[in-house]
């Protein structure tokens, strides 16, 4: 499986919206790619284009050689807001996509429990959504996304609304889950530390017509330690690049 972005451009009539120019990127099967950049550089726009939620002005996005022209079961999106249904309990929310896909009740139960155990929520399977914490809600949303077994998991700042301690714990869990499942993940974040912690590569998007992106190979062994000299050096390098482009 490969996700290929070719000469991708997106222009909006409203000048306040992000514009992408000549984006070229290839994501291999099982790769974890993070996208960072200053506000307004087009991070979420790029993810929405890959999700098929909006159409490019020009260029192509190919998944396994097939052009993406709209949403599909081969891609699952996890947004900043968990999007859980408050009238369903934890396991019913996790089963929801499988139910829509026509999976049998046995398959729904088996997959839902498998991923609830993976995100350490099996004990809370019957809890109403309003009785669990924000971090647990995001874990529920992650379990729901994983059950769909899509080729690519698209994550748009899923931990940014959480407190620092909770977001740190969830990124540790996400790294563990990725190492177990080797899902292909495209992860949008405003946190350079989070990107260096999670990504095999970090794509730095920059606004403007002359230079649109840079790709930083991380190359650090996992699990990673945010205070190691190598980690700090990479984080500083990417931060300086973003600051320079913003100025």
Structural description of this entry:
- A six-stranded mixed beta sheet has the order 6-7-8-3-9-10, with helices on both faces. A four-stranded antiparallel beta sheet has the order 2-1-4-5, covered by helices on one side.
- The chain has 247 residues and is α/β, with parallel strands linked by helices.
- Helix 2 (90-100) packs parallel to helix 4 and helix 6 (192-198) crosses helix 7 (229-246).
- 37% of the residues lie in helices and 23% in strands.
- The chain has helices at 43-51, 90-100, 105-118, 134-147, 164-181, 192-198, 229-246; strands at residues 2-10, 20-28, 32-37, 58-63, 66-67, 75-78, 152-156, 184-188, 201-205, 213-217.
- It contains seven helices and ten strands.
Largest sheet: 6 strands, mixed
Helix content: 25-40%
Mean pLDDT: 90
Give the strand content: 15-25%
Task: State the distance separating the first and last CA atoms.
Answer: 38 Å
Low-confidence stretches are none
- C-alpha Rg (nearest Å): 18 Å
General form:
globular
Strand order of the largest sheet: 6-7-8-3-9-10
Number of helices: 7
Kindly state the number of beta strands: 10
Briefly note the structural class of the backbone.
Answer: alpha/beta
N-to-C order of helices and strands: EEEHEEEHHHEHEHEEH
């Amino acid at each position: 499986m490969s996700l290929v972005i070719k000469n991708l451009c997106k222009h909006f009539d409203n000048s306040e919206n992000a514009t992408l120019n000549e984006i070229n990127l290839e994501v291999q099967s099982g790769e974890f790619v993070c996208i960072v950049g200053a506000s307004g550089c087009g991070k979420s726009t790029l993810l929405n284009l890959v999700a098929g939620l909006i159409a490019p002005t020009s260029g192509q996005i190919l998944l396994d050689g097939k052009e993406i022209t709209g949403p599909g079961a081969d891609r699952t999106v996890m947004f900043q807001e968990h999007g859980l249904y408050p009238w369903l309990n934890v396991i019913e929310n996790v089963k929801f996509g499988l139910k829509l896909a026509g999976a049998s009740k046995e398959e729904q139960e088996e997959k839902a429990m498998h991923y609830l155990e993976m995100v350490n929520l099996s004990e809370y399977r019957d809890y109403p959504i309003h009785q669990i914490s924000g971090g647990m809600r995001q874990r529920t949303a992650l379990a729901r996304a994983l059950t769909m077994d899509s080729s690519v998991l698209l994550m748009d700042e899923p931990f940014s609304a959480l407190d620092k301690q909770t977001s740190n714990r969830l990124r540790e869990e996400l790294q563990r889950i990725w190492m177990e499942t080797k899902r292909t993940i495209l992860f949008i974040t405003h946190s350079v530390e989070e990107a260096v912690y999670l990504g095999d590569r970090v794509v730095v998007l920059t606004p403007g017509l002359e230079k649109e992106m840079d790709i930083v190979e991380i190359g650090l062994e996992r699990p990673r330690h945010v205070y190691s000299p190598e980690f700090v050096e990479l984080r500083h390098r990417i931060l300086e690049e973003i600051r320079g482009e913003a100025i």
